[in-house]
Design a protein that fits this description.
The longest helix has 42 residues. This protein folds into two domains: 106 residues, Winged helix-like DNA-binding domain superfamily/Winged helix DNA-binding domain (Arc Repressor Mutant, subunit A, Orthogonal Bundle), CATH 1.10.10.10; 138 residues, 2-Layer Sandwich (Endonuclease, Chain A), CATH 3.30.870.10. The protein is elongated, with a radius of gyration of 28 Å. It starts with a helix and ends in a 9-residue tail after the last helix. 21% of the residues are buried. By secondary structure, it is an alpha+beta fold. The protein is built from ten helices and ten strands. 55% of the residues lie in helices and 16% in strands. Helix 1 crosses helix 2, helix 3 crosses helix 4 and helix 6 runs parallel beside helix 8. The strands form two sheets. It has a seven-stranded mixed β-sheet with strand order 4-10-9-8-5-6-7, with helices on both faces.
Length: 298
């Protein structure tokens, strides 16, 4: 009998442990979802606390200011200020009863509203940009010649790096050399940058690609009909990845060089340094010349 009771307790304990583990995993997943929503709302213009208050209201359906303040550990004054800001944005409404309650616009509608607001703001900035450029060009020209200087610029994050790549692709006149990792090619593919490169090839720019041969890279570059492509051996683990345009400017991707990227974001170095450009151009051509052909690896 004692043995049976002991076995029953062990089974019950295991079941409770599994149940507790399931709850922990569910809570962790929910936390990840909430964090992702908050980060998206912040990208669309909300502060961290505004995003937290909105998400809390969206989940709870309706709540009093005191409930929000207590749940999110915010002082009462800041809570009311945030609620007023969210109301001005059209993300929450007030229920006029005692005490006052607040309800949130559904998440999908809120995201649509914030995105449309961003679009309108960008459209207004585009119009303002043209006016500013026109005014700038109307100013008296500075006739003093500016000597060429070698510049270095460290870029951090996908958006800034992709924008710089876009500028280089748009400004190139005669040739562009690209030695890219699978990660870089994926980012360029989904950002539409490979289409821009292929358009350059159509208008006569010489486009040369070096990349490791992998199913993903072949997929990313399948539509590059006018670009020259050759594949690196998978053994070449320490190959730097970079872009050189017209032998005048270069973008060097530092992720593969830096052993530890504490920022957790992609980093790249942009420069017009002649020595660096010549060195990496020589490396590129060495790898290229040793390649047997566009569908063969070196």
């Amino acid at each position: 009998m004692t043995h049976v009771l002991g076995e029953y307790k062990r089974i019950t304990s295991r079941r409770q442990s599994r149940s507790e583990l399931g709850r922990i995993l569910e809570n962790e997943e929910a936390a990840r979802v909430f964090n992702r929503i908050e980060e998206t709302l912040m990208k669309l213009g909300l502060s961290r606390n505004e995003a937290r208050v909105y998400v809390f209201l969206a989940r709870k359906k309706e709540a009093k200011a005191s409930e929000i303040s207590t749940a999110l550990l915010l002082n009462r004054t800041e809570t009311y200020r945030i609620l007023m800001n969210l109301q001005k944005m059209g993300l929450i409404s007030t229920v006029f009863e005692k005490p006052l309650k607040f309800i949130a616009l559904p998440l999908e509608k809120s995201l649509n509203l914030l995105i449309e607001t961003k679009k309108l703001s960008i459209s207004a900035l585009e119009i303002e940009k043209e006016k500013i450029i026109e005014s700038w060009r109307s100013l008296p020209k500075n006739e003093i010649p500016v000597p060429r200087r070698e510049i270095f610029q460290v870029l951090e994050g996908y958006e800034h790096i992709n924008l710089k790549v876009k500028d280089m692709i748009e400004d190139v006149d005669s040739e562009i050399y690209i030695c890219a990792s699978e990660d870089c090619l994926g980012r360029f593919y989904y950002a539409g940058l490979l289409d821009a490169v292929e358009e350059n090839a159509r208008r006569g720019v010489r486009v040369m690609f070096l990349a490791k041969k992998s199913p993903k890279n072949i997929f990313f570059m399948r539509d590059l009909k006018r670009s020259d492509i050759r594949y690196l051996q998978s053994e070449l683990e320490e190959t730097p990845f970079f872009i050189i345009a017209d032998n005048e400017e270069m973008l060097l991707f530092l992720d593969s060089i830096m052993e530890e990227n504490r920022l957790g974001k992609p980093i790249a170095l942009y420069t017009n340094c002649t020595v660096l450009i010549k060195a990496l151009h020589k490396l590129f051509m060495t790898l290229w010349d040793n390649s047997a052909g566009s569908e063969k690896s070196i």
